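Subject: Predicted fold for N-acetyltransferase, 301 residues

User T.R. writes:
Posting the sequence so we have a shared reference for the thread.
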Amino acid sequence: MKKALQFNGEVHDSDPSQASLFAKDSKSEITSEASSIYVLDYACKEDFPDFLESVMKESAMAEIYLEDEVLPKDTAKLFDMRGKLRYRESNRCDLMLVLRDNTKLAGYVELRLISDSDSSSTLFALYVHNEYRNRGIGNLLVLHALRVFLNTGESTMSVSYTADSLPLYNKFGFYPPYKEKDELADWFKMDDDQRLAQLKDEPSDYLILDLKVRSCRDIFDGNFRKFQSKSITFELSENLKADLHMNVLAKETAYLTSNTMLLVQSGLGILNTAASQDAKKRKITQDLPEFSSVAKFNIRN
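User M.O. replies:
I've generated the structure tokens; pasting them so everyone works from the same file.
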């Protein structure tokens, strides 16, 4: 039985045979890893067909994004707002980072940041196209999402995981909410495989990261550096590169993300893939400062 997805008042048939009506041909040839030129950037309208295809064809993404078969307005706005949306009424900023292989969407990560004593930031979704998996793309996307998070000075984050993303979040130090604070030291004494086995045996609806807990922070620090050193080769858009050195929740940046016109005028979040193919490819370690300089917290045992 076919279903329909509503977006901006339009109804899209979710039958995969009709996907070509709104998405690029999923059977188009994917370039080999050796010939891929990856660009990490903000999402834009041109990415929406590939995004929509991922939501309608991947059950894990459908569970995250579809409620009553309607795409959340917060997510839909990100494509109109060039990947970054700052809310005036609350200290919140939503972002979607994408990794492109030429014009093909290889993966994306959506981040919802907030500075509120009653709420925590959320790593809302992570997706890697099945043709690009096992290349380190998930690591790259999460690494940069966490980089943006660290720049805010916040220390807690939650994530709803999938079976595919659970091992990655585990390595970054996300832990189940049923663990009491006094249990965490023993929890993080286990190695990655031991923790992962327990997470699979005792699943929870979401996971937590708390960088004020020393044992959690130690695991986070170690694997953050490890993923930096082993990153795939990619190019970073100038617009995103600038934002990786600022706190997107800071008041002085709020006006930059209040509406589309200001985004266009500021130049933030605009697709920039004009760099020539002979431009020197950058490694993540060249674009990121030493991790210890990104953010400092009061850490408790």
